[in-house]
Amino acid sequence: MELSGLQIAVVTVIAVLSVVGVALFARTVGHLVRVIRVGQPDPTRGGQAGARAYSLFAESLGHARLGKWPLVGIMHWLVFVGFGALFFTLVTAYGQVVDPEFALPLVGRWVVYEWVTEIIGWLTLVAIVALIVVRQKAHPRSAAGEAGRRSRFFGSTFWQAYYVEFTIAAVAVCVITLRGLEYALGQALGGESAHGAVHFPLTFWIGNLFSGASAGALENAIVLVAALKIVVSMAWFITIALQPTMGVAWHRFLAFPNIWFKRHPGKDPERGLVTSLGALQPVMVKGAPLDFEQMDELDEDDALGVGKVEDFTWKGLLDFTTCTECGRCQSQCPAWNTDKPLSPKLAILALRDHAHAKAPWLLAAQTPGGAEQRDALDAATKIAAARPLVGDTGWAESGDVLRAYNPGGEGAEGLGVIDPDVLWSCTTCGACVEQCPVDIEHVDHIVDMRRNQVLIESAFPSELGGLFKNLEKNSNPWGMSPRLRMDWAKGLPFEVKQVGTDVEDLSEVEYLFWVGCAGAFEDRQKKTTRAIAELLNTAGVTFAVLGDGEGCTGDPARRSGNEFLFQMLAQANVEMLNEVKATKVVVSCAHCFNTLKNEYPQLGGSYEVVHHTQLLNKLVRERRLLPVAPLSKASVDAPKAPAAGAAAPTGGAKVTYHDPCYIGRHNGVYTPPRELIGALPGVTLEEMPRNSNRSFCCGAGGARMWMEEKLGQRINSNRTEEAVATGADKIAVACPFCRVMLSDGLTTQQAAGNASDEVEVVDVAQMLLAAVKRADDDKAPAAATV
Questions:
Q1: Cβ proximity of 388 and 311 under 8 Å
Q2: Per-residue pLDDT averaged across 129-157, rounded?
Q3: pTM for this structure?
């Protein structure tokens, strides 16, 4: 077949573009692999092929993580399918620039294939237009000034997003236009070339618009539109090849390995798809957990935590490069939503940009003559290589929150990539990880940087110094004497058994009741501890406590970066638990629950750990506890007798429940507390807008309970405002940290006149005890009268 002059010119242009595009793309893929491999080894990412395959299938083809946002999820799924399925139309376009009548062998004229192509083409166009509208509606410019940061797209790179959207829309339009021109050409040529409208169900009308055109003109139009489709596609390949940090494009390829290698793949009966929350990993050196007793054997290059970008694992570097800048993490972050500098998205982007800016320096060391190659690098790369990962960025003086991340240009030399205010604002609540559609593990990375700041740099908020001393000296954050750990049990109408005093070991009882530091020392939480003990006793559950043999689980030490102190506390507890033959443990603190259940197995302590709401709910379902007395609006925490002549409070109680992050997002315990509240007579559960896996943190996690909240609005105030707005009489909690934070927030609201003095924060266990005890009181015989 002889080519026309137009075809020769077109073929020449697309041949050059295609060779350049594919070559640059392949080169950049190789570069990305080399950069990612600069990271430290991580042996936790292997095995579990079945679970990993399930996660990959469910989260990619099933788009399970985007199901929280139905419209965006469906539209994104359509674009995702179109991106893959329409590849065959690109192959067809290469044939059409040579032969306008070209069709793929075997399937090209198959009516099913043609229908699928047209349907996907149109749906892809509709979907990308819808996503463009969504982006524009949520654009930061929709809110002036500082309020613009409420947009999840605040800080995202907009030109890249616009370019990707334009590319997808242009390809879809080209596919649809080509189908219409193919129909028109067939009609113009007649004979075997003509195919009825049934082959072009959604584009025949476009072909009819060209019904008066000659066959030659139609052939030239097909050549030009096919060439345009190829040019747009190859330009996209060239653009992203020149922009290896263009996450909004590269996530289309990198999301698959990032999901496959997530820390916790598979599905959990309670949590559904598992996220990389729960247990933190120990400090790793060369891919193995660090034995702190062998610190002297470490090499000079061995890092404790992450002090340089190359100290992250290869999965960390893959995380950074995969980020699509969608801002889902940012929209849910409690720190960002209370005007603090921490944005999980911006932190990941800063680490991504820094990793790639420093990459030439790091890669030079892996080749012969590395020193000479480093000397030849440009000044910007040398500055990037010398900058501290965490250090002052000057953001506070400028007032620009974006300056807290990877400041560039003049003055960047010597400044940190991430400001310490960013690092220490994190509550480790896990909202970012829960929301991320490509399984980035933000919390792991933040804690790893904290570890280096604490263990190597000794740079941490001053308040943590007191916390560490109290934990080291008395094994509790308050620094109270261990002798006071049993004060909570004074005055109970039954004996609380202690291991070593009343029972030899835990084989004599059903459960170890792990009281926790807050349950033993914090006055408000002591009431919860007593309530749980009374309920277990009423239900006939035998239990014992460790008394002064119990120490802090180490959660605040580990999450503030002091892994050495965590190991010391945890190993002492594991030795004690194993010695007293612990098997089943009930815990009232969400943080103790997570640590005992998920992290103590790392140290040889594997136990069946249940949260008190889980056990109490089970006892109610088994009718071993009978909450038959209606729960009124009267105070549960500190009941007061009505004043003389005043009527006792009547009417059912409206309750709102706050999900603790460390039993909710980190462990998937959402149903038992709600079922327990639902079992209380006279109670109406009023959910807050942000609940369950989208619950808003109380602000205490990540050792933030012991740090002063100096920036922005207090997180507990934000959450308490939401709770009060439900009109609830009681704010139910299931964690002592949450109780302290929300009680303080409620006091502030009441002082400002924004909440009734009758509203109270109570643990679910206290509400259950009130319903059970009042039922028992009703059964008691009336006092004799004289």
A1: no
A2: 84
A3: 0.92
